[in-house]
Each structure stands twice: as C-alpha cells, then as structure tokens.
Automatic annotation (TrEMBL):
This is Mannosyltransferase. It is found in: Endoplasmic reticulum membrane. It holds the Pfam family Glyco_transf_22. It is a multi-pass membrane protein. Keywords: Endoplasmic reticulum, Glycosyltransferase, Membrane, Transferase, Transmembrane, Transmembrane helix. Belongs to the glycosyltransferase 22 family. PIGB subfamily. Its EC number is 2.4.1.-. The keyword Repressor does not apply. PANTHER family: GLYCOSYLTRANSFERASE, GPI MANNOSYLTRANSFERASE 3.
Length: 471
C-alpha cells in the first residue's frame, strides 16, 4: 500500500537514477538538499525488476528487526527484564511499526539506529558512577550510531541535544566533548564523500537543508499544522492503543531521562510548522519500552489476570485490524498500477499520471527505459523573492479547473492515439500570475492513469472516447 511519496521518491527513485542512469529527481536533489547516504543503501544495481522492488523491502525488514531487538534490549536496560519481554511484544504488534518500519523511509532506518544508540547510552549514571573503559566504549558506540541517524535525518539531533546536555550538566565528562567532536567529524566527512559521488561536486548538504527549510521556509509549503498536532493527533495515531500505557510510565517512572527525552523532543518538534506522523518514529523504541513496563506492572500487580489479559487481547486486536487494513487494503491501487504498467508492451506508448504529484512510485517500480512517463508536478517556490501566498504549483493550477488546464496546456493534435509514445512537445507555455515557471505542453499518450473522481471531468473532453477503460 501507499503511505507517503518519500518512500519512493527520496530513496528508491534516486538510487534507480544513480545505478541505471534514468529516473526522476525531485527538486530536493537538483538543489542538493538531500544527502545520498540513505539512497546509497538501495543502489544495488539488480537488473531483474522483481528483485529491484523486493530487495529494498527485505533490506528494510532487516533494519526493522534490528529495531525490534534493540527495543527489547533498551527496555531491559531501562525497566528490567520483565518489561523487556512486553516491550518486544509491543514492538511486534504495534501497527505503526508493521505499517511503516519496513518502508524505505529514512525515518525507518533512523528509528532502528536510534534504538541502538539509546541502548548504548549511559542512562543509569549517577554522581558516584566510576567510568571504566567499557563505559567510554559504549558511549562512543552510542555517539557513532546517533551521528549516522543525524546524517540520515538532521532532526534526530534534537534527541541527542537533550540527552547530551543532561549528561554534561549532571556528570561532566572531560572525554565527552572530544568523543562527540571526533564522531561528528568522521560521520560528516564520510557523508560528504558519499554526497560527492552522487552530485559530482563538493557540497555540505546539512547547510543546504537548513537554508531551504529554515531561512526559506520551504517545509511549510507541504502543510502547516497547529502546535498541539503531535499531542492531539501524532502520538495517539503512532502509538495508537499503546498511548495510555506509554503516558502512564512516562509520568510515573523514576528512570532518569525517559520523561525528559520524550517531552523535550515532542516540544521542539511541535515548534516546527510542518509535521508528519513518521517524524516521531524515533521515539517509538523508548515509548514502546515504557508501554512494556506498564504491561509488566499489570501482569505482576494486584489488578487481576482478567484485566491484564483483556488489555493484551485489546492491544492485539486493535493493532492487527489497523495493520491489515492500512498495510494490505488502503491505497494499494497506486502501487498495483505500476506492476500492471510494467507488463505492457513498449509499443503501447507513454504514460501520463493525471493525479496529485508523486501519488505513485515511478521508474524504480517500472524499470522500463523505453516507456516515457509524466505527471503533474508540484515544485515549491524555491526563490525567496516569490510570493508564497499567491504561488500556485502545476497541481494547483490543474485541480482548480481540470478541463481548462487540458484545454490550455495540452496539444490540440487529435492524432495522439496513433503513436502515443510521447507525453510532451517542445513548447513552453506561460502560467498566468506565475512568473517562476512555465509548463511544457502536454501530449496525450496512449495510457492515462487517474483516480475515479477525475474520470467524469476527463470524459467531458473530446479525448475520452479514444481510450479503453481499465479499472
């Protein structure tokens, strides 16, 4: 099923373009906002199409399993062996893990790396702690995994800002700044080298990322959410029926740092206008560890076995239903259509996606260089001088009036169905009120992919009778 475009467009599509020399690079890559570390993991170069699609899923599943294992180990370290068992159960039945952890998001690998880093982090320190070589080595391992997570997702630094500051202020370690600086420099050097292999020029992606998202405010183009969104929607959806258990432990635990890292991270993330469910995935390991502690407390408490069993059955049923529906049924058509297109003959011609931009996978799931494809774009206003309030991308213009869009920006040539291999002409057409871009004139190819809601609008045009309908 489909969840978010980044699963394909910021990982698999980039890797496909790098390995095979064709694909579609979104504006983040043409403007060097993204680092190549994550797509590099999927640049396998496999020629068999089914393996190109399957191998990244298997690879990501391995990382998801690592996340499960270290959620178990982290819970054991923080709350004890009894809680660890139920933390593992929670991680395995958590619908959001099932739904998202095996997808090729950078957030998914970030979550597993965060679980590993948190396990090696010195949570149980006191002023009387004697720091041995083993303690220092574990701290360095933690910092190394944290650094990789931050390279994949710079926002992961918020977690380590809290944990690191707390460690320094409560138990100063002369070696910590040195270790932190060394790990950071090594990680930044390696990521810069990887970015050079992709961009063929030296660039500091983290600086570009900050420039576009902070000074230009590009992230707000993809949605602005209220300050309490993570509290009112994000956490209740991601943790789902585990939410009360996690909150209970977070409020009552005496384990140093758990309540603070959860609260601080959610607070800082809430200050950012653009929010998504998957952005708080790195908090799942410690959150599910806390849920496991609450479950263990119920198991050994005086509340009775019936209540405990009812809670466990409720958790299993609610998460299983959500996992099945969202992972197998909901929004699967936009993924299935790529398999259908892949089996068509190259003589069938090009493909046009008349739907919101990035609604489907692209060449990473087609792997057919002989088929030209095109979709309605949605490039954000990248220049600071552009008035963001009046800016409309191509998708906005299309959905404002689909019939007028087709009448204005599609070729009037009625012989398209004869050849149908191209999706565009060489003509560039201006867009009223939008001086920052032009639209390359469309040509009707022999295959058009669209949602049923738009079918009526398309059928009002003179082109509908020239197509056979496949549902």
């Amino acid at each position: 099923t489909f969840f978010s475009p980044d699963e394909y467009w910021q990982s698999l599509e980039v890797a496909h373009e790098y390995v095979f020399g064709y694909g579609y690079l979104t504006w983040e890559w043409t403007h060097k906002v993204r680092g190549f570390t994550h797509p590099m993991l999927f640049a396998l170069g496999l020629e068999e199409t089914e393996w190109i699609i399957l191998a990244p899923k298997v690879f990501q599943a391995v990382f998801a399993a690592i996340g499960d294992i270290y959620t178990y180990k982290l819970a054991g370290k923080l709350f004890g062996n009894g809680a660890a068992k139920w933390a593992l159960v929670s991680s395995l039945i958590c619908f959001f893990n099932f739904f998202c952890a095996v997808r090729t998001f950078s957030n998914s690998i970030e979550t597993s790396l965060t679980a590993v880093a948190m396990f090696y982090w010195p949570w149980n320190y006191t002023s009387k702690t004697t720091w041995t070589a083993s303690h220092i080595r574990n701290l360095q391992i933690s910092l190394a995994f944290a650094a990789i997570a931050c390279i994949l997702r710079p926002t992961n630094a918020v977690i380590w800002l809290y944990l690191g500051t707390t460690l320094l202020t409560q138990l100063p370690l002369p070696s910590l700044p040195t270790s932190l600086l060394s790990v950071t420099l090594i990680a930044l050097t390696l990521s810069t080298l990887l970015d050079y292999t992709f961009y063929n020029e030296w660039t500091l992606v983290p600086l570009t990322f900050l420039r576009f998202n902070l000074s230009h405010g590009i992230s707000t183009f993809y949605g602005i959410h209220t300050w309490h969104w993570y509290l009112s929607q994000g956490i209740p959806i991601v943790l789902f029926t585990f939410t009360p258990l996690t909150i209970y432990t977070a409020l009552t635990t005496r384990v140093r740092g758990v309540r603070g890292v959860l609260g601080f991270t959610v607070l800082v993330y809430s200050l950012v206008a653009h929010k998504e469910f998957r952005f708080i995935m790195p908090l799942l390991p410690v959150s599910l560890g806390a849920a496991g502690d609450a479950l263990y407390g119920m198991q050994v408490g005086v509340g009775g076995k019936f209540r405990f069993r009812a809670v466990v059955v409720g958790l299993v049923l609610t998460n299983a239903i959500a996992a099945f529906y969202l992972g197998v049924v909901h929004q699967r058509g936009v993924v299935d259509v790529m398999g259908w297109l892949r089996k068509r003959s190259s003589e069938d011609g090009g493909v046009l996606f008349l739907m919101p931009c990035h609604s489907t996978p692209f060449y990473s799931h087609l792997h057919r260089k002989d088929i030209e494809m095109r979709f309605i774009t949605c490039e954000p206003p990248l220049e600071p001088s552009i008035d963001k309030k009046s800016y409309q991308d191509e998708s906005d213009v299309f959905y404002a009036d689909p019939v007028a869009f087709v009448d204005t920006y599609f070729s009037k040539d009625k012989t398209f169905a004869a050849s149908g291999k191209r999706t565009r002409t060489d003509r560039l057409l201006s867009v009223p009120g939008q001086d920052s871009y032009q639209i390359q004139e469309y040509v009707w190819p022999s295959r058009v992919v669209l949602f049923q809601a738009l079918l009526k609008d398309v059928c009002t045009l003179w082109v509908c009778h020239q197509f056979n309908l496949n549902v």
